[in-house]
Amino acid sequence: MFTAAVLSNPPLYQLHNADLSLEKLAEEYDRLAREEAQRWDEINRNGDIGYADVFERIADRHRDRIAVIEVSSNQSYTLTELDRAADRIAHWVHAHFDADRIGMNQVGMYDKNDFGFLAAVSGLAKAGRSAVLFNQREPPCGVARLAGRYGIDRILGNPVPGILSQEIPPLLKRDWSGRVPRTWRRSVDREGPVAIIFTSGTSGVEKPALFSHRRMIGAGLAWSLRTDMGDQDRCYITLPLCHGNALAVAFSSCLMVGASAVIRERFSVRDFLPDIRRFRCTTMIYVGELWRYLLAGSSD
What we know:
Blueprint (H helix, E strand, L loop, with lengths): L21 H24 L5 H11 L4 E5 L5 E3 H18 L9 E5 L4 H12 L3 E4 L6 H10 L4 E4 L6 E3 L2 H4 L20 E6 L9 E5 H14 L7 E4 L6 H14 L2 E4 L8 H7 L4 E2 L3 H9 L4
Helix pairs in contact: 1-7, 2-3, 2-4, 3-4, 7-8
GO cellular component, one term: plasma membrane
Pfam family, one: AMP-binding
InterPro entries: AMP-dep_synth/lig_dom, ANL_N_sf
């Protein structure tokens, strides 16, 4: 467990590897690197190429484990439920979006942090499409501008002016038509993008950044191993899922070990510790800004 006992109720285990010498720590990291290579070897032996292949195999292995918990609704979803939700979206996308049309291998997403967002990313991967992730905090006119600049004319999620949009909740209510065939993603290779995100634009115009299948799988393997995550862990995710730390690192780590992702729409200083205790979270992915907010609001 990679957490401090003071944040939990009841207390958790001691910080993993905290007492190792530098020499022993180097040995431990060598061991983890070997284990990571073994995981890749297993993926290759299974014939899994892309993120969706790995996702489906893990869903089959951990069927009834809780995959996602929504803080806002207090709803929980198993890996089987997430897998089938992704299938529903993949079937709809395959039926409505012509993959042979230029640009139709990339579908925009503009939605909040929730189960539907994760189902949509996974569903697009199952259908052999890349998810272009627009920040939900960007106004619709800003999303329309970015979509136009990069040739995105289909969006899953909230409506965007001038763009053909499909909200996600109705797709999740459709009948399950079975698991989608792998042939729908036969053109996928590991170096191609699962997701395309946009930088914040703090140093100029927002720029797209590609998260390949290799990177999405590898980030989950690397982080889960090095933080000693297991299938009993719960990872608190408040960072936007449209960015790399939340999706490629936090959620992928949960997926790789069958842990639960506790999803909150946005970070709250006041609700941080109550959420951690209420949902018994044991780990989280952070950026430095979160700690600054916590320290600034410590008097609360």
